[in-house]
Each structure stands twice: as structure tokens, then as C-alpha cells.
Amino acid sequence: MATIESLLRAAVLPDSPSGKLDAEWLLAAALGKPASYLRTWPEREVPAESEARFVADLARRRRGEPVAYILGRQGFWSLELEVAPHTLIPRPDTELLVETALQLLPPTPADILDLGTGTGAIALALAHERPAWQVTGVDRVTEAVDLAARNAQRLRLDNAEFRESRWFSALAGQRFALIVSNPPYIPAHDPHLQKGDLRFEPSSALVAGDDGLDDIRQIIASAPSHLLCQGWLLLEHGYDQASAVRGLFAESGFVDIQSRKDLGGHERISLGQRP
Q1: Does this model's pTM top 0.85?
Q2: Distance CA 141, CA 254 (A)
Q3: For residue 166, is pLDDT > 80?
Q4: What is the third-level CATH fold of 84-273?
């Protein structure tokens, strides 16, 4: 019977920059243990059924499938979320949206909207941090709405709700103090779409026209009629799109327009206020 140490030593993932960590996560999941268990008990023998699952999952990872899809979960903010192939995998860069949103409004009652919610990551992080906020997440994909609702239920966040809507289509007459979104923003011809985890993620959550700005244009143009006075719109975008996005904010009459940098030093999000 193989040991934890021997299985990890043999688990070669040459095309993954995080190969060692990926293998540890997969083996820990197969054992039903935290990753720390592997380092504490490397000499422990691995049951045959756990080894079989690990070998199968490792083969999926070698084919390029993201670890989050293999395990069916991904950490975001302080939450663990269920994920599935019909939703984008939440990423650390998107936590900048959450941080900024929390700075913009006080922790008093307010209606918040998350457009294109996917797993519900942004909406649920905000609902978790601000119990007085009522957060609505919308997505055009029914399966994503159902998944986000399951995440809310499992996390016991009663101040978050999810519904099906193509951007603002199901929100007629509703206004919010803050609208946040991580919309598709990758140009259709971007070569990165054929590399790494992006190959497995839904293109509808990634691609937005020839310049990557189709959905951002639509959101910025429509948002003023769904924002309260002094309400904020906050968007994630590509590393090289900040100037263009600020221009779109200005064209739609927003004020106090600004961009903020991610941990890599790129202008990753932009925001503006309805006067």
C-alpha cells in the first residue's frame, strides 16, 4: 500500500506552476483530510479507494482541468464556495472588488447588486461582511443562479438572494446604492483563451467582443437608471482596459471616476458615482 509521501513524490504535474500544491490538494481531498495532515503524517498508508480517486483526479489535472472543478469548490474571501464548469472560478484579484465596495458605503442598510454573479462569490462576500446590506445577485445562466443560491444557503447568508437576469433585464424599476460586477472582458481573439484553466471555463463568462468591452459598455450605459443618487458602479476589467473604461464612465455622466490597482500593480477595477 502506498504512503502519502510516495504518492506525492510520484505525482508529477510538469505543466502546472503550482503542481506540488495541486497534488497536495487532490490527495487531501481523496483522504477527506486537511492539507496539513499530509505534512504531519507523510508515512501514513493511503487506503486503496483513496489512492484510486487520487490517481483519477491527478489524471484530470494533467489534462489541464482546473483543481477547483475537480474538487467542486474554491476559496474566495473568507468563504468556501461550490463551483461548477458553468461558472467562472473565483480568483484572488476579484477580492479587490469586495475590498473597495466595503470602503464605499457604511455598514448601514443598503440595497446592493452583483451583476453576472456566477458562484455568488462577490455577493456572498459582501453579504457576509455587511449583515445590514441586502445583496441581490443576478446571472443569465439558470444553473449559476441555482449554484449561488446553494452557496448562500450553505453559508446561512439570509441577506443575499439570487435571480435569473441578463444584466438589468429583470430589474425594471429597481435602484441600488452600489452595483458591482466582474463581467466578461477578454477580447475574442486573445490567445490566453487557449491556455491553462481558461480552456475549461465558460467562454460566455470570459469573452466580450473584439475589444473585450462589449458587456462593460452595456453595463455602464444602463447602470445610471438603476442607481440611487450618489450610488456607485464598480467594475473589474482587463489589466490594460482602465483608460477605456474610465472614458465610458465619463460618457455616461459618472463623476469621481477612478481606477485601483491589484496586487500585481495593474489597474484592475474602475468605479464611478452617479451624481
Answers
A1: yes
A2: 29
A3: yes
A4: Rossmann fold (3.40.50)
